[in-house]
Design a protein that fits this description.
The complex is a heterodimer of chains A (487) and B (291). Chain A is mainly α. Chain A is 69% helix and 2% strand. In chain A, strand 1 and strand 2 (103-106) form a beta hairpin. The chains are: A mainly alpha (487), B mainly alpha (291).
Chain lengths: 487, 291
C-alpha cells in the first residue's frame, strides 16, 4: 500500500531522491564499463554490439538503426541550427533582385526563433540518446553476466512479450511522457532561454533577427534606466496579485466551509434543492457567467440603473466616493479590486462548498457527540473540531489553491479586458493595468504587443514567486502534520 | 428529530422559528447566487437584440434570438462552433482518458525502479502553471503550422494530461491487490490485468476522467483564443465565438444571442457536471490527502 505522506512532504525529498537516482545510474554504468568484455565496451560506439555478441540479432539491428537515425538527425538537421546557437543567426532577411529570373527573391536568411527552438530540441534529443547509450551498455553487461552464469538469454519475441508484462510500465508511460516533454518541458526551457534574448516587436523573425542580451531584461525589470516603468508596473502588479490570491483563497475557502455547514445542518429543509441551485452556478462555463457579470456591472449596465433608481448613486456622489454619473464597478481602481474579489466569491464558494461537504462527511462523529455532551456551543465545536479537521485534510489543497489563484487568468481577464482602462501613465507605458495579475499582464504583452522578452522574464518571476510560496506552504504543512502525530 | 418530540411545546416553537430563520438565510444566499443565471435565461428570451440596461426582466418576451442563433450569419456561426467544440472535446477526451489511465495504472499497480523518481518529477512539473509555458507552446505549434487548426488545440488540451494522474491513481490504489495476484497466478500478464481486472472494477473513475476531460474544451477560453487567432469564424470554438459577439461594435446586435448561446452550452455541461459531481469531491479530497 501507499504510505500516507501528503504530496508536499514528498517534494522535500524529491530533490534528494533525484540525486540518488542519478548517482545510482552513473555507478551502474561505471561498473558495466569496467567489468564488461570487449563487446560491452564496443557498445559505446556500436550500439548493437552487445546484443550481437549474445545472438540477439533483431535487437542489435534495431539499436543500430536507432543509432544511425540519431547520427542522420545530427548531421542533416541539428547541424544546420546548433552551430548558430551562439549568435542566433547573422543573416538578415533581405529581398534580392535575381537577374536570371528577373524577380525579387528572399535571400537564404537566418530565422532566430527556429534556431533557438530546434537547437533546444536537438539538445533534448542528444541528452536522451546519451541516456539510451549508457543504458544500452548496462544492458549489454547484464547480458554478459547472464551468459556467464549460464542463464537463458531472451529471444526477440520474449523481449517483446516482456513489454506487455514486466516492462508494461514502459509501454504505458512512453506516449504520455513524450507528450509532457514536448508540451511542458521543452516550452518551459524555451521560455527561460527567451528571457535572455531581445525578442520583441522590433526583433520579430523571420524579417528580423534577435540575439542574446544576457541579463539586461532582468535589469530593466528591477533596475533603473529608460525602461524603469517596467519595474514600476511590476511592483504594483505583483502587489495586487498577492493581495488578490490571499483574499480570493481565504474568502472562498472559509465561505465554502460555512456554506457547507449551513447546508448540512440538521435544521435545513430540502438540502438537495439548495445544493443544486448553488452547483448550477459552477456548471455554467466561466466565460459565460463572467462575461455576463461584466455586463451586469458595466458602467451603463443593469446594476447601475438599479442603483440610480434607488438613489444609491446620488448618495455615493454626495459623500464623495464617486465623481462620475455612474458607479464604476469594474472601471476604477479600488472599486474594481473589491468587485473582482466579490465576484470571485460568487464563483468560488460553490466549488469549495462541494469539497467541504465531501470532507466533512468523514468527520469523526464521536468527537462531535462528546463535545456536545461536554456542553460546547456550536462556535466552540467549529473552532476546536471542525476547523482543525478541515485544515488537516484540505490544508495542502489550500496551498495549491493559492498558487492557482495567483495564476487565475479567467476571472481577471474576462471581467476587466476592454472594460478597465488605466489612467496611470507609467502603468500604461508598460502595457499594465492596476487590476492585472502577472499572468494577464504577460498575456497582453505577448498577444497585443509582441514583447516576448519581458513576458518571459515575468513568466520566470511568476514561477519563482509561486515556488517560494509553495515551499513556505510545505514547511507550514509538514510542521502541522508532525504536531498531529504527536498529539 | 426524536429528541425534539420529547421536548415541551415551548421548545418546539422556539425550534421552529430557528428552522425558519435558518432556511430563510439559506434561501436568501441561494437567491443571490442564482440571480445572474436567472438574468441569463430571462435575457435570452428578450425580443430586443442589444444589452437591456433599464429593467431586470426583458420588456418584451420572444424566442426569436434562439432562431437567429441557429441560423448562421457573418458573425454568428454557432452551430459550426458547437460542432467544432464537440469534435475537439471528443478527441481530447479519448487521448486524455487513455493517458491518465495509463499513467495512473503504471504508478499505482506496477513497481519499477524509476517509479518514485517519476512521481517526484510530476509533482515538480505540476508546480509550473500551464499558463506560463503557453507562449512557448504557441510558437512551437506555429513552427509546425498547427496554429489555427483544431489538431493544435487538441494537442494542447491533451498532450500533457498524463500529469493529472493522481486522482485516478488514488482510485486504482483501492483495487484489492489480491485480485491482481490471483490473476497473475492464473497466467495473466500485466496488460491483461489492466484490461480485464483493474479497468472493469474502476468504472466510477473512468466516468470521472471521461467527463472531466470532455469538459475541458467547453470550459477553456484562453488557449482557444490564443491558438485560433486568425479571425476565421468557422474555426472558432464556442468560447471564442461567443466572446467575439461581445466586442464593442457587435454587442448591441448580438448580446441577446450571446445569452442564448450561453444557455444552450450550459445545458449539456450542467448535466455532465451533475453526473460528475460526486466523483469530483472524492477526487479533489483524495488527491489532496494522498498527494
Amino acid at each position: 500500500m501507499e504510505e500516507k505522506s501528503n504530496g508536499f512532504a514528498r517534494i522535500g525529498s524529491a530533490f534528494s531522491g533525484f540525486l540518488a537516482g542519478i548517482v545510482q545510474f552513473f555507478s551502474e554504468f561505471g561498473t558495466a564499463l569496467a567489468g564488461g568484455d570487449a563487446f560491452v565496451k564496443l557498445s559505446l560506439i556500436w550500439w548493437g554490439a552487445g546484443h550481437f555478441r549474445r545472438k540477439q540479432y533483431v535487437k542489435a539491428l534495431l539499436m543500430t538503426l536507432l543509432e544511425v537515425g540519431i547520427i542522420l538527425f545530427t548531421f542533416n538537421f541539428a547541424m544546420s541550427y546548433v552551430p548558430k546557437f551562439g549568435t542566433l543567426g547573422t543573416v538578415q532577411a533581405e529581398q534580392v533582385f535575381n537577374i536570371q529570373t528577373m524577380q525579387s527573391e528572399w535571400n537564404d536568411y537566418d530565422n532566430s526563433f527556429m534556431i533557438l527552438l530546434f537547437s533546444l530540441f536537438s539538445f533534448v534529443v542528444w541528452a536522451a540518446s546519451v541516456v539510451v547509450c549508457m543504458r544500452n551498455v548496462v544492458n549489454a553487461y547484464r547480458l554478459q553476466m547472464e551468459a556467464q552464469q549460464g542463464h537463458h538469454i531472451n529471444s526477440f519475441v520474449e523481449d517483446v512479450r516482456e513489454y506487455l508484462d514486466k516492462k508494461f510500465h514502459i509501454t504505458l508511460l512512453t506516449l504520455p511522457t513524450l507528450g509532457i516533454v514536448i508540451f511542458t518541458l521543452i516550452p518551459m526551457l524555451l521560455l527561460i532561454l527567451v528571457a535572455f534574448t531581445n525578442y520583441d516587436q522590433q526583433h520579430m523573425p523571420p524579417t528580423n533577427l534577435f540575439t542574446w542580451v544576457g541579463f539586461s531584461n532582468f535589469v530593466s525589470l528591477f533596475g533603473g534606466g529608460i525602461t524603469s516603468t517596467f519595474g514600476y508596473a511590476f511592483v504594483r502588479v505583483l502587489g495586487w496579485t498577492i493581495v488578490w490570491s490571499f483574499f480570493a483563497t481565504l474568502t472562498t475557502y472559509f465561505g465554502g466551509i460555512l456554506m457547507s455547514l449551513l447546508l448540512n445542518s440538521k435544521l435545513t429543509r430540502c438540502t438537495r434543492l439548495w445544493r443544486t441551485m448553488l452547483v448550477v452556478t459552477i456548471a455554467v462555463p466561466q466565460f459565460v457567467s463572467l462575461l455576463l457579470m461584466r455586463n451586469f456591472f458595466a458602467n451603463t449596465g443593469i446594476m447601475n440603473t438599479i442603483c440610480a433608481n434607488i438613489g444609491l448613486t446620488d448618495f455615493l456622489r454626495k459623500i464623495g466616493l464617486i465623481s462620475t454619473s455612474y458607479i464604476p464597478f469594474l472601471s476604477a481602481p479600488i472599486w474594481a479590486h473589491v468587485m473582482i474579489i466579490l465576484i470571485n466569491i460568487w464563483v468560488g464558494i460553490p466549488y469549495q462548498m462541494l469539497i467541504a461537504t465531501g470532507v466533512l462527511m468523514n468527520l469523526p462523529t464521536d468527537q462531535l457527540e462528546s463535545a456536545r455532551m461536554d456542553g460546547a456551543n456550536p462556535f466552540q465545536v467549529f473552532k476546536s473540531i471542525t476547523m482543525p479537521y478541515m485544515l488537516q485534510v484540505t490544508g495542502p489543497a489550500l496551498v495549491t489553491d493559492f498558487v492557482k489563484n495567483f495564476n487565475n487568468f479567467n476571472v481577471i481577464y474576462l471581467l476587466t479586458q476592454d472594460v478597465y482602462v488605466t489612467t496611470n501613465q507609467f502603468m500604461a507605458n508598460s502595457q499594465a493595468k492596476e487590476v492585472d495579475l502577472l499572468v494577464t499582464w504577460l498575456f497582453t504583452l505577448t498577444q497585443d504587443y509582441y514583447n516576448y522578452k519581458m513576458a518571459s522574464v515575468i513568466g520566470i518571476m511568476v514561477f519563482v514567486v509561486c515556488a517560494i510560496f509553495t515551499l513556505i506552504g510545505f514547511n507550514f504543512m509538514i510542521r502541522g502534520d508532525k504536531e498531529g502525530t504527536y498529539q | 428529530m426524536t429528541q425534539s418530540k420529547l421536548q415541551p411545546a415551548v421548545h418546539l416553537g422556539k425550534r421552529n422559528t430557528k428552522i425558519i430563520l435558518h432556511n430563510a438565510l439559506i434561501a436568501f444566499l441561494c437567491f443571490v447566487w442564482i440571480i445572474p443565471i436567472v438574468w441569463l435565461v430571462c435575457t435570452s428570451f428578450s425580443a430586443y437584440p442589444g444589452k437591456n440596461t433599464s429593467t431586470f426582466f426583458p420588456e418584451e418576451w420572444s424566442a426569436i434570438h434562439y432562431v437567429k442563433l441557429l441560423t448562421p450569419d457573418t458573425v454568428n456561426q454557432f452551430p459550426t462552433w458547437f460542432m467544432n467544440t464537440f469534435k475537439i472535446a471528443c478527441w481530447t477526451c479519448v487521448i486524455s482518458t487513455l493517458f491518465v489511465l495509463m499513467v495512473a495504472y503504471a504508478m499505482s499497480v506496477m513497481r519499477f525502479p524509476a517509479r518514485k523518481g517519476l512521481m517526484n518529477l510530476a509533482v515538480l512539473l505540476n508546480l509550473f502553471p500551464g499558463m506560463l509555458s503557453m507562449i512557448a507552446v504557441y510558437f512551437t505549434l506555429k513552427t509546425f503550422g498547427l496554429t489555427n487548426s483544431h489538431i493544435g488545440l487538441i494537442l494542447v488540451y491533451s498532450a500533457s494530461s498524463g500529469l493529472g494522474y493522481l486522482i485516478a491513481k488514488g482510485f486504482f490504489d483501492t483495487v484489492p491487490r489480491s485480485l491482481c495476484e490471483a490473476a497473475r497466478l492464473d497466467g495473466c500478464n500485466e496488460a491483461m490485468i489492466f484490461w480485464k481486472i483493474v479497468l472493469p472494477t474502476s468504472k466510477p473513475i473512468i466516468v470521472y476522467t471521461v467527463i472531466s476531460s470532455f469538459l475541458v474544451p467547453w470550459m477553456d477560453f484562453v488557449y482557444a483564443k490564443m491558438i485560433l487567432n486568425a479571425g476565421i469564424s468557422a474555426n472558432y470554438t464556442v468560447a471564442v465565438g461567443l466572446y467575439k459577439m461581445l466586442e464593442k461594435s457587435l454587442i448591441n446586435t448580438y448580446f441577446t444571442q450571446f445569452c442564448c448561446g450561453g444557455v444552450l452550452v450550459s445545458i449539456p455541461i450542467s448535466i455532465l457536471f451533475f453526473i460528475m459531481q460526486k466523483f469530483y469531491v472524492e477526487g479533489v479530497t483524495n488527491g489532496a490527502v494522498k498527494g
